Amino acid sequence: MSRILDVWYLNSKAGELTQDKSGQLLFAYDADYLTSPQPWPISISMPLRPEEFGDRITRPYFSGLLPDEEARRKIARLLRVSEKNPFSLLEIIGGECAGALSLYPQGKGPHEENAADAYFLDDQAMDDLFGELRQRPLLAGDKGVRLSLAGTQDKLAVRVVDGKLALMLGGAPTTHILKTLIGREDVQDSVHNELFCMMLAAQCGLDVPRVEIRHTATEPFLLIERYDRRWKGGHVARLHQEDFCQALSIVPENKYQSEGGPDIAACLDIIQQQSIAPLPDRVSFLNIVIFNYLIGNADAHGKNFSFLYEQGKPRLAPAYDLLSTAVYPELASKMSMKIGGKYEPMEVRLHHWHRLVPDTATARNNLEKVLSEMSLTVLSEAEDLKANLKKAGTESPVFDDVIAVIKQRKARVLS
Fold first, then answer.
1. How far apart are CA 385 and CA 121, in angstroms?
2. Which residues are part of the catalytic machinery?
3. Between 3.30.470, 3.30.200, 2.40.360, 1.10.1240, what CATH number should domain 115-229 receive?
């Protein structure tokens, strides 16, 4: 027997996600949606059409709305469903996804928000919450909590109202992502690490969400403003987005290039083909690649790049999940995407960088100029940022570790 979920794009029913009796996932746009004044596609991989999309296209997109790896396994165990069954997971937690989609049982529409949906968190509630998050990612199984966020780190979507944090029930939209410390002995102080790298990216001119660090009585946490949410007229509006794996119909478990995920060329190609401003977006993408190399972020895979949609038109989304993995010796140094055919950062030389741009003297010279200028800028800004954070009362040994990686990578680039 087939099972069906209604797929809503903002306040319109866009179509139906079906799981047939063999377990295949199918998606079809709603006929009324297709004839509406502004029927926007939910994905580059699923353009508007009356015909149904099969499992090969549908599964990667909808699986990409769910948490990755260990977080997904934990949630599946809690909900007593298979981790390999994205339909069952989305049926329970698909009310508040990344982007503008929400999924509800057939015949039920999006939750109508009311004041009772906001559950404000005091300090004690925050500490209790963090303990629960490590056992129950996204608070899966909590009555009224319908959150689905991709990624592997413990995180939670919250709304910030007058500086206070609130859980939103019933699938009501949130405004921020809260990240706790990564619970691994070999990954120390991930909160300050990501804070530093995100703030550094902003100081270097990259487009990134605003971040801040807060503390409970026992530990720090990172608060990241959602770029796919916006306050409008006193209400939180959803903006649509999709990551590059979803756009390219690549299942999330294959997000790394070595496992079938996109490489840098594929990312540049889809930006060229789909962005409404391909030239500046290609430049921005390459700047993020260079920045990630300099800070030692080896985990910049296909799900960490996205399109953000305004009125159905895609642009490269702000950079996110910027973290120096190179400061942790136990983590693999192998990069998620090759640079000029090389996975190992210390094997990358200038001629490998040249392969990322057209084979012309002008393109190579421009790239060399950007590499040189960014190498100098990132190091200078990192040292200034550390000093400014110290003045503001924020310190961590991981800041020096990140700066040491930048110095090493800068020397390699400039050589």
1. 31
2. 299
3. 3.30.200
